[in-house]
Amino acid sequence: MIRKKSVQAILITLILFSILSLNLIISEEETQTEIDKAYACFETELGDNCGNTRSTKQAAFNLLAGSYSSSFQSDCKSALNKIKKSNCWGETDTSPCNIKSTALALLALEHVQADTEDYVKWLLDNKKSQTGLTWFLEIDSNNKTTCKINNQQIIIEENKKISGIPASGLIKTYNNYWFQVNNIEKNYTISCDKDFKTALIYQKPGSNVYHISSETHSALEHDSVTERVNSYCFSTSGLCDYEGTLWATLALAKAGEDISSYIPYLTSMSDKTENKKFLPSAFLYILTMSDDYYSELMGLQKSNSYWDESRNKFYDTALALLALQNINTDEVERAKRYLTSVQKESGCWQSDTAFILHATWPKNPVISGGGSSISDCESFGHYCTSIGECDYDKTLNNFYCSSSAEVCCETKQQELTCSEKAGIICDLDQECIGDRVSAYDTSDCCIGDCQAIEIETECGKAGYYCKSQCSESQEEKSVYSDSCDFGEICCANKPDEGGGSWLLIILLIILIILVILAIIFRNQLKVWIFKRKSGYKSKKQGGPPTRPQAPGFLPIPRQLIPRYPTQRPSGRPKNQGSESDKEFDDTMKKLKDMSK
């Protein structure tokens, strides 16, 4: 019997596996059909003039999505050139130049390996150092040491406090443990007579959080290091343009520029309410590959399907998927399925069709320039990685990748495994209580604890129990047994043989209570029944007019005087008493006659 059941279980497992595999193949084919339909619609909208758009943003996205076709490339580059003003772009051909529009155009042109040197220069000319951050300099040593900062001598005491007069541009702060940097455009050369370390620290206005710069320096005794605040944003108006800086940093990274000086501003200002609508965690994950931004981005997904921070779910979902192109998780797959489920009949989306296609299902660009083709990065043994994964000096500019969020990297950084990140991989029947990050050996590494997922079976939903064997007072509900774990059946309590029921017991108790009440109040009940049957009505007695009640006061109660003494004589004189007395006597007499 056991062997027979085991064979049956194996056959059922194989059948289920075959069905799931077939469903997966069908699902993939259906998805590919929807993608092909979307690209067909996109090509129809582009026509032979890049969609005849006057929008820089739309022309840039059209160029990114249509980069697989040389004719589309030519049309969209021409469209961008028509909108361009000198070496920069505005939102339309009649708008003044701004950071975001120029960055979008630069990103698209860089993706197809166009000449972008002048546009890079325009962006760099519009960076500014006054980002609103407060900067500090820390010098640390294991021993008391005498140091010079720009030839101005100070002493780092045993307790790490600073004594002495600091160099121009610095003031002691944080209880004399740090220097505040007042002149952020100045170099500070530091040397000490003991081994030492230096670091720059920054703080957002109104915040108690301190951020340590990505670079720290160390030197041996009598050697020197130079520290300089290297922090910028982009602006055309004097005030930092946060969204523009996000796109400019991404575009400059794609162009092979060092972007480390823009990260402090972007990270420190990412949690400001007015900046959250730009979905900064998507950009910062591309630029830094930080687990914190990965977790934050995943946490913003709505209904496990889409993103919607700017009130444009198509644009936001495309931006999130641009950051997650190399991540294979259920959340990413659900977002893709969501997009295919809301396509219009034509195959396009309500908006941002070009951006969705490039961010979610990009195609390799067709690139040729200077008479020789630019090669596919991975065909030559290199690696298409997210911008944040490749060191600046390892980026190769003569190769292309399918996504604008990727660069060709000479070597691939060995990502840490889940255990190296102090995480764990949850089982299929568990969920992560904590942050979920990507690791070398899994895209679903849990930084926290794994907790069993409580899934209610159909047997449980019906109010029954999954057990290995039903008790004597239970019987099997075979209809629901398949929902139980292997080796278990669905058990339900047998009906009460005596026919008893809690409902009947409760009804009986209620009836008993009603009978008792009827006995206690039988006289009142008789009067009520009599009046209902006979239509008898008491005469209305006139009384003194009601005295008006002064507002704001409670009514004055009248003294209640009993009509009869508590003990009445056995005989009652005739023709005595009020009309109400006679009325009461008549009523009682009739009731007495009824009771006979």
Structure description:
By secondary structure, the protein is α+β, with helices and mostly antiparallel strands. Among the domains are: 134-230, no CATH class; 367-413, ligand-binding face of the semaphorins, domain 2 (2-Layer Sandwich), CATH 3.30.1680; 458-493, Single Sheet (Anthopleurin-A), CATH 2.20.20. Helix content is 36%, strand content 17%. The chain has a 5-stranded antiparallel β-sheet, with no helix packed on it. The protein has a 5-stranded antiparallel β-sheet with strand order 5-4-3-8-11, with no helix packed on it. A 3-stranded antiparallel β-sheet has the order 16-19-17, with no helix packed on it. Helix 10 packs parallel to helix 12 (353-360). Residues 1-9, 16-26 and 538-577 have low confidence and may be disordered.
